Amino acid sequence: MASQDQTRFLLSENDLPKFWYNVLADMPTPPAPVLNPQTGAPVTPDFLSVLFPMPLIQQEVSTERYIEIPEEVREIYKLYRPTPLIRARRLEKALATPAHIYFKYEGVSPSGSHKPNTAIPQAFYNKISGTQALTTETGAGQWGSALAFAANFFDLPVEVYMVKVSYQQKPYRRVLMESYGAQVYASPTNRTQFGRQLLAQDPDNPGSLGIAISEAVEAAATSGGKKKYALGSVLNHVLTHQSVIGEEALKQMDLAGEYPDVVIGCVGGGSNFGGIAYPFLRENLRNGRNTRLLAVEPAATPSLTRGIYAFDYGDTARMAPIVKMHTLGHRFIPPKIHAGGLRYHGMAPSVSALYEAGLIEAVAVKQLATFEAALTFARTEGIVPAPESAHAIRAAIDEALQAKESGEKRVILFNLSGHGNFDLAAYEAYLNGQLEDYEYPAEAVQAALNELPAVHVSG
Ligand SMILES: *Cc1c(COP(=O)(O)O)cnc(C)c1O
Predict the structure, then answer these.
(1) Is any ligand 1 atom within 6 A of the Cβ of residue 340?
(2) Is a pLDDT exceeding 80 seen at residue 458?
(3) Per-residue confidence (pLDDT) for residue 118, from 0 to 100
(4) The pLDDT value given to residue 24
(5) Quick one: average pLDDT of 320-333?
(6) Whether residue 92 is found in the same domain as residue 158
(7) Can you give the pTM of this predicted structure?
(8) Ligand 1 center to residue 388 CA distance, Å?
(9) Residue-wise pLDDT tens digits, 55-101
(10) Which domain CATH number covers 294?
């Protein structure tokens, strides 16, 4: 039983989960098929095996509820897991709320976010499958750093296509990737056919996550099987790997002697949200719990709350598979908001399907209100959050203020997906009054509809 004033709820190495939880086992409807971008028909394992090693393809389509975490992966997880669960007592006091606010802190990983939770197993499964090098994209640099960190342990070279604006705005993320041994290129590059085509049209193309994915996919697909591609979010196997967050949090809430009324995560592609929320969803669906699960996205890239639920390409060049998801259209070039990790045009198929089914909630928050929440958090709890994670903080504060209004003791748990120590340029812009709110225009949502692929599936 927790003492009255306990703040940190820690697990020992022995409590590190031995299994990942796969939400596909508990989905109310079977997942929509993944489609070949050239034909619009369901993909074959052969098509996927150009990009991914077989163990990850098997996890991608698995409906087994639990997948064993290999010992080699658990050994590396132990460098930073289990991560702490912290009660935000000073934040509660500053808000004068009767709510109890807890956060799971994933920023303690060596690369500073939750992303190593999937980078480590992805590097491991590639290594044992004979992959000689990995290609990937990165937006803000979090995913590239995580993969560079993880692949290094398995002596796998990494080629990172980094969105050009981030490459220019975030030189230190690039240096971090290079310190772990990765090669980093500003995308669009002249290393791929697609990149060369875009640069011929516009040498100043700022890049986007969709473009960088296209380049990384092309680099793997044209390598004669030597290189494979790694994706840091969206796919089922990624969200499965991230379930370690929620599995630990369940045990830690138990240590605190409480159970959350609401679990909150920010969403870019959906992986840190799925990671913390899905084990709680399982408890809702299988063990009679009734926790609200709230996904928080930027008003500037509102794929869940304003996007269309449809089959769309995963990337701009239409080389990556087509999946059914909430999308702003694969040609989406995001506004230059500072939460770089939340700028993807689509959303994880499982998050999308659960939102359609009414099993999770979503809200969009604006940039200025998000940075205001980030500073409130930094000045009460001491951690400067990643701008992405600050979206979850905004929503957690709003929940706590609602609880104050209604005089109710709400138990709030949110995922602090990363720290913001590499994002100080964004904080500087905010502190200097240079950030603006931006809302995604309704016409753009309409325009994206015309670009959706023709598909050949029933239902
Ligand atoms: C990448 C990233 C995100 C967004 O990605 P998800 O897959 O939605 O989790 C959120 N927070 C941080 C710190 C990130 O690095």
Answers:
(1) no
(2) no
(3) 98
(4) 97
(5) 88
(6) no
(7) 0.96
(8) 6
(9) 999 999 999 999 999 999 999 999 999 999 999 999 999 999 999 99
(10) 3.40.50.1100
Cα 101 → chain centroid? 22
Q: Is residue 228 part of a domain?
A: yes
| Residue listed under structure tokens 């080699």 | 72
| Number of DSSP helices (H) and strands (E) in the chain, helices first | 18, 15
Tell whether 51 is covered by a domain. Answer: yes
Neighbouring residues of 239: CB distance < 8 A, sequence distance ≥ 6: 23, 270, 271, 274, 275, 278, 348, 350, 351
Host domain of residue 269 = 82-112+242-449
Contact 202, 211 (CB under 8 A): no
| Cβ pair 102, 248 in contact under 8 A | no
Q: Contact, 413 vs 249, CB < 8 A?
A: yes
pLDDT value of position 142? 94
Query: By alpha-carbon position, which residue is closest to atom 2 of ligand 1?
Result: 341
Find the Cα–Cα–Cα–Cα dihedral 133, 136, 142, 145, rounded to 10°: 20
Give distance in angstroms: CA of 264 to centre of ligand 1: 13
The letter for the amino acid at 24 is L
- The mean per-residue pLDDT over the stretch 210-222 comes to 94
Distance CA 58, CA 121 (A): 14
From residue 58, how far is each of 45, 136, 219, 222 by CA, in Å?
9, 20, 23, 23
Domain boundary among 199, 217, 236: 236
Kindly write down the DSSP assignment for every residue of 431-447, as one continuous string: HTT--------HHHHHH
Distance of CA 224 to the CA centre of its chain: 29
* pLDDT per position as a tens digit, 348-376: 999 999 999 999 999 999 999 999 999 99
Ligand 1 midpoint to CA 269 (Å): 7
Q: Measured from the CB, is residue 104 less than 6 Å from ligand 1?
A: no
Q: Flag whether pLDDT at 338 surpasses 70.
A: no
In a domain, 396, yes or no: yes
Beta bridge partners of 131: none
Q: What is the pLDDT, as a whole number, of residue 3?
A: 67
